[in-house]
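S1.2 Input.
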Amino acid sequence: MNKRRGRLFLGVLTLGLAVLVALGIYQTRDRGRIRYENLDKIAAGMSMAEVERILGCPPGNYASGPLQQKLVAADGESVYISLDFSRSEFPAMRGGTIFVWLGDRGEIGVEFDEEGTVIGKEYHKGRRVPAAWWQYLEKKLGFDS
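S1.3 Output.
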């Protein structure tokens, strides 16, 4: 009877760990249309059509839910702030326009001059706001920093 209980306990423990791993993979999976891996291919002088082809979609909000951006202070403390997205086009400081692609992995901003060619780009890493139970688990395991 003891061997049976031990096997049952081991089976339940294994199943529980498998469920936690599956939930972790599901929580961190990118479901968006934006191809972040192509960000380095964007170069000065490109047109909007070329940038859209590289990123896989036009500017816009492709996030599957609310997003957070991780900020790290000089003392090493980190905090997540909410990313608010209300439009995909902003005036630039240098006179052009910044177009924004927002997805589950963060925000890409590409600056175009008056002629419509790329003059700069930025990427702000982000993540979907995790469920409360996931945040609790991250904090308890020390992964929230």
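S1.4 Remarks. The first strand starts at residue 60 and ends at 61.
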